[in-house]
User: Fold this.
Amino acid sequence: MPTMADVARSAGVSVATVSHVLNDTRPVLPHTRQAVLDAIDELGYTPNTLARSLVTSRTRSIGLAVSAISNPFFTDILQGVEAGALEHGYSLLIADPHDDPEHELKVVQLLHERRVDGMIVAPSADPRGLLAYLGRHAVPTVLLDRVVDSPAAGVPGFDQVCADGAEPTALLVTHLAGLGHRRIALVAGLPGLSTTSERITGYRHGLAAAGFPYDERLVVHGDSESAGAERATAALLSLAVPPTALVTANNAMTIGALRALRDRGLSVPDDIALCCFDDFAWADLFSPRLTAISQPSREIGARAVDLLLERLAARDRPARTVRLGCAFVHRTSCGCPDRPGHSGQPAQPTQSLQPLQSVRPVKGSVS
Assistant:
């Protein structure tokens, strides 16, 4: 097996120079760097990652803790994280906290014990233990998808990246209102998650923009999963005056809502209109095709890696929250007629809250 000394001899440089190229510990002239890389490729040299970590105190690994890895949204985020990590020479260690605060703390502790350089975490509905641990051990961390607005006393702020949740939900409501619906219900996510709170806020803003009162009976919690949404939707349909339109707050809950509607023999959109937060690969294959908010999931994952690497390079810089824009993908489950040749793909951004007649992305922001 070739050694670092073999690479140095082949490239005509010192062993120290080879080490600097491998570890990025000192600038190396471009032609020298290329000579080292060519020698590595020619000899088939593989760096000893464990030995290198002992020298540099870096493992070039990132811990990723996200719940429901089987969820297409988090699967896409994972792909974005993986692509960004590999691009910068980092490996991933992945754990599923199951949206349980105790399990969340346990898996984060395990990742930390594996000496990851930093973590990307989608926090649970009660992340106090998680944040206290990360702050106490000064673990470079980016919070993903679910933001924490006010860190606990003595806990530092964390870099965060997520999509906007309120305005896109408001757009769904105003679109349905523009189609004549007056009783618009929301199947919301797990209580305590920032995504759930933001989408309820957006729902209420959409009602207010349409001039409708808020009726708490029309907001039910599907707990961010299919079975919960099926039960919640059944409860809505049992009201004395059931809704004529539904907004579901994530893709798993959309599936549960559709099951409940099927069990009641109801047709979308003839009997009840449906719009959903979270687009997914087969949303365009349903009949009718699902009108949806599309989140930039892969971009969220890639941006989380960027933020983490920036944090590793500058530990003392102020924490940042990055919000990325979503897109309203106009299809037919809302009750609008199909348009031949229309692909249902995002167009240009806008911040309008008016009822929509075309695909309309929503701007994000950075704070």
Summary: The chain has a mean pLDDT of 86.
